[in-house]
Structure prediction request, 339 residues.
Amino acid sequence: MIIVLKPGASEAQLKHVVERIEAAGCRAHVSCGEELTIVGCIGDEARVERLNWSTVPGVERAERITKPYKLASRQLQPKAGVIEVGGVKIGGGTLTVMAGPCTVEDRKMLFDAAAAVKKAGAGILRGGAFKPRTSPYDFQGLGEEGLRLLQEAGRKYGMPVVTEVRTLAHVPLACRYADILQVGARNMQNYDLLTEVGRAGRPVLLKRGLSATVKELLLAAEYVLAAGNRQVILCERGIRTFETATRFTFDVSAIPVLKAETHLPVIFDPSHAAGQWRLVAPLARAGVAAGADGLIVEVHCDPEEAKCDGDQALRPDVFADTVKDLKAIHAVVCKHARR
Ligand code: PEP
Ligand code: MN
Prediction:
């Protein structure tokens, strides 16, 4: 259920609505927009539905949330949300560029990559310390040492940092060093992990599962939101199809679909979708043209020597040219984008 307040409803009326929802055994989720204040009821809706809302002062109407992803839906929050991390905005008409190496390999490579992406206009530094590798024999990441280096590089170059957490135990550890916690595609339906990052109170970058539908992605986000964390960024990163010419199939249509369904910021990852560096820039241009709020790209100063995903890493000069193009495309697109 959502309870839509009348324009100009008072603080006391809002408080009363929240109290009635809580008295009915539900949790109230208040969303204050410029024009509308909407209170979502999370829990056993039947008890809230029985209340005679038309008689409650300040209430315009009560209606059912028709989507299964209640907190993520536009019905609860019609206006697109903005997440702010260390002075960098994600959503709300900005184009946020997150970039860096797939994996933190050592200090020098990380700092070189960080300097290069910063110079090219990236706002957020990426780097994995706990890698979800397909083979157990491949480089698995530096663990806590990787987190430490990432934090240091982020501070030196003035960028908040994003890194993947794979297990529950990684969450408190990563919170000590990182600004955004990434849940990778392979963990999108790890519900315990989703709840744990939901409790961590840090922005969460949630990647779409390899074979997950848009609805499943939104329901995964709902786990994080239901745990009390409103700062979720969704990421389209390519899905498994019968096509083998690319590593995954970049589902560009997921971007406008998600933007219409949810108020959460939507970014994309052209690197893992493409699997080859030559395809990264065209996919990046397509994703921005489709209305994404940003993207996350792998950049490496020496891709031949990369310990992970070298084939898809952009060299800094290619990345810098790509960012220029993306800014130009974004300037055109934001006229049409749904806010
Ligand atoms: C990554 O971003 O480092 C990564 C492993 O991505 P994904 O989970 O999308 O495969
Ligand atoms: Mn990678």
